[in-house]
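Batch job 17 of 40 flagged for manual review because the log was empty.
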Amino acid sequence: MKIGLLSDTHGFLDPRLPRIFRGVEHIFHAGDIGPDHLIAQLESIAPVTAVLGNTDASTLYRLTETIALGGRKFLVQHIVAADALTNEFQGRLARERPDIVLFGHTHQQFNRVINGVWFLNPGYAGKPKSGAARSVALLEGDAKEIQVEFIGLG
């Protein structure tokens, strides 16, 4: 299983993404997408699961998605305070029981296991601005073992 992860594109699809995501089976976009056509462009690479971010107004996507792939359960939501989980989100984790939570919003990479759940933020993939670090991520593995690789877009 090989999965592409990105977030916070804000309407900009880096021209290197088709090459970076070549061969992925699925792509997750963790919000702040921009125009809906950006997801259509990603779908030319692989099927996409996307969620709304705080700057999105589309009616095509939801705030949270849960999907099983490759023997893993993924919960995708744009804003997640991984270091200070709300009671509401903790309840969602108890109900959904994901293996991996994918999120965005902070424009910062995040890669940590908290209470047995792996929290991942691929970082900021939008237009280059004022030296901000830009990145996406690839997940690769199977139901027994999975690894993440962050790929800089600098």
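Reviewer: the log was empty due to a logging misconfiguration, but the result itself is present. Residues 2-152 form a domain with the Purple Acid Phosphatase; chain A, domain 2 fold (CATH 3.60.21.10). Unflagging and moving on to job 18.
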